[in-house]
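Q: A reviewer asked whether we had any structural model of the full assembly, not just the individual parts. We don't, so I'm hoping you can provide one. Inputs are below.
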Amino acid sequence: MSRKKILVVDDSKTALFMVTTILKKEPYELITAHDGQQAVEVAAAQQPDLILMDVIMPRMTGFEACRELKRREDTKAIPVILVTTRGEEANVETGFESGCNDYVTKPINAQELLAKVRDLVAQT
Amino acid sequence: MKTPRDTHGAYVRKVQEGTQSFAHDLIAEVERLQVLVAALGAEKESLSGRVHEIEELAKANEALRALAASLETEMNRLQEQALAQRAENERHQKEHDRLQAQLDSIRAESQRFSARYAEIEQQHSNLANLYVASYRLHGTLDRKEVVDAIQEIIANLIGSEEACLFEVHAASGALELAACFGVTTESARAMPAACAPIAQAVKTGEIFVTDAQHRQGSALEDRLTACVPLKLDGRVTGAIAIFQLLPQKSAIEDVDRELFDLLATHAATALYCTSLHARRGALASR
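A: Here is a predicted structure for the entire assembly that you could use as a starting point for your response.
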C-alpha cells in the first residue's frame, strides 16, 4: 500500500521542522511548501492526501490559499488543516469559512496534531 | 221366617262380596306391586348408571394415580436435573468470575499501557521540541537567522508573540536590546530598567518564571511571563524576556522550562558563534 502524502506549509523554518519531525515517525510521505502560493502549486502538481498549512504567511495567507484550493476543481477534495497562532473563535470561524476541514493552534500539541492528521488521512 | 234357601243365598252373597273384596284388594295389591316393581326397576336403572359412573371414576382415578406416579417420577428427574444444572451454573459463575477478574486485570493493564503510551508520546513530543530548537539554533552561523530562530522557537514552541532579546554590552555590562518582536522597540529598550525580574535574572543567572497564569496589562512589564538569562561558561551574556502568552496557552509547562534551560545555553552559544564567525569573516576580508 502506498504511503499517504502530506503537504506541510509554513514560512517558519522552525514550525516546518517541528511539524515534519512530529509526522516523520508516522508512515507518511512529507512534502513542504513555504507560502500559500507555493502550496497551491505543489498541491495541484502533487495531489497530496492532506494539507497542513500555517495561516500567517507571505505572498498568500493560509486562509487565501485554502479558499483557492477549495475553488479549484483539481484540489478541492484535498482536506486542509490550518495551523493558527490565534485560537479565538472569530479566527477559527474565518478558517472554516475558507473551507478548511480542521485547525490546530500554536504551540502545536503533537498528540492533538497526530490525532487530527490520522483522522483526516483515514477518510481519504 | 227365613228359609234355608234364603240363608244359603245370603251366605253366597256374603262369600261373593268377600271374594269380590278380596279380588279387589288383590288387584289393588297387584297394582301397588306393579308400581313398586316399576319404581324398583327405575331405581335399578339408576343404580346401574351410578355403578357405571363409579366404575368410570375408578378408572379415571386409576389413570390419575398412574399420571401422578409418572409426574412424581418426572419431578424427581427434574429435581435431579435442576440440581445438576445448579451445580453447572455455579461452575459457570465461578468461571465467569475468573474470566471477569482476568478481563479486569487485562483492562487495567491496557489502561496502564495506554497511559504509558501517552506519556511516551508526550516525552517524544517534548524531545522533538528540544531537538527542533537545538537544531534551529545551531543550524546556521548567520546572526539574523539565529535571532529569527529564537523568535520562531518562542512563537511556535513556547507560544508567545511578545519577546525581547537583550545582550550584555561587553564594555559597560549593561543590557542592550538586540531584537524584539510583538512589542515596540521603545518599550523593549525600557525593559531592563523598568522590569525588576529581568535585571534580577541577569544578576543571579536564574531563570524567572511568573507564578501567575496569563499575565495581562497595558504596560509591557506587567505582561512579563518569563526571563531566560543567556549563559556562556557560567557568565551571563544576555537575556530573553517573554511577555504575554498566546490566548490558547494557559500557562508555562514543564517542557517550556526545559526549552528555557536549552535556550539559556544554546541560544547564548549560537549567538556567540555568529559573532565569532562574523569576526573571522571580517579578519579574512582584511
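A: Points you may want to mention in the reply: The interface with chain A takes residues 118, 121-122, 124-125, 128-129, 131-133, 135-136, 148-149, 152-153, 155-159, 161, 246-249 of chain B (CB under 8 Å). The first helix of chain B runs from residue 4 to 137.
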